[in-house]
Each structure stands twice: as C-alpha cells, then as structure tokens.
Design brief:
single chain; alpha/beta; TIM Barrel; eight-stranded mixed sheet; 8 strands; globular
Length: 156
C-alpha cells in the first residue's frame, strides 16, 4: 500500500486530532477531486509496518486518531494497520467514496465517511451532501458536527 503523504488534520474527525494517511490507488476519480495524485497506485511511497509504527510513535502525544483517506481497495493491509492503531491506543477512521465497506473492515473502524464527492451537493460541511460521516460503534450519523461549524463560521 502506497501513501502519497501524511499530515496532521483537525477537522476531518470531529473532536480528534488525526494522523491522516493519503492512500494511493483510488479508482473512483470523482469529478472535482481535491487529490487526483491519489488515483495512481504507483504514486507515493510504501507504508510499511515499520514506517507506520514510527509515525504513531512520532505523533503519539499529539494525536488521538488515525485516519486513512482511501485504502479500502487494499483491505487486508488496511485491516492490519487499523488493528495496529487500535493496539497502540488510537481511534481509527476511514474516508471512502464508496457507499460502504465490508463488515470485516468496518469492524476495525471507529468512524467511517462514505459517499463520492459531488460538487453540487457539497462536502460534509453542507447539509445537502450525499456523504455520510458515521460513528461505527454507536451507529450515529455525525454530519451535523461538520455543518454546524461551517454555519457558525459563515455567520461571522
């Protein structure tokens, strides 16, 4: 599994500071995609177990969640990374453009964002979005946490 980059993000998983891993190989190619560099599986560099553990240790006191932006097409590898993240005490999240993921994959997630990007419907900060951000353990849809923040910012 190749990643294009990793970053620390603050808005993608509400109430968490997340280590985001941008996984290469997305075949959806949504019009208006903000990360077309993720389309080619050969882009980026390999996310090895050693690199993953190194990143978790490097950011251990700064993050609470590990977020994969894609990667469901490499399910076995992704599940192993999710298991490791949980074992190391982190929450886990996945952003996918698909409408769902396998039960096996979902069982290793705390949060899951599903749905293709559709410019006319907006992202998670839009009440009209087709995308769904869900707390897996409680089966709660948490989209309102995104657009409430958006509405407060636009009201200023």
């Amino acid at each position: 599994m190749n990643i294009y980059k990793h970053d620390i993000v603050f808005q993608e998983v509400p109430n968490h500071i997340s280590l985001a891993l941008y996984v290469c190989g997305c075949s959806l190619r949504c019009p208006g995609c903000h990360s077309p560099e993720l389309w080619s599986e050969s882009n980026g560099y390999e996310l090895t177990r050693e690199l993953f553990l190194s990143l978790l240790n490097q950011y251990r006191n700064r993050i609470t969640c590990v977020l994969f932006l894609g990667g469901e097409w490499r399910e076995a590898q992704l599940v192993e990374f999710l298991k490791t993240a949980h074992h190391e005490g982190f929450w886990t999240a996945l952003y996918t453009g698909e409408t769902g993921v396998s039960q096996e994959l979902e069982s290793h997630l705390d949060f899951l964002k599903t749905g293709r990007w559709r410019r006319e419907l907006g992202g998670l900060d839009s009440p009209t979005t087709n995308q769904v951000f869900r707390d897996i353990k409680n089966n709660q849809i948490l989209n309102h946490l995104f657009y409430q923040t958006h509405n407060k910012e636009t009201a200023k």
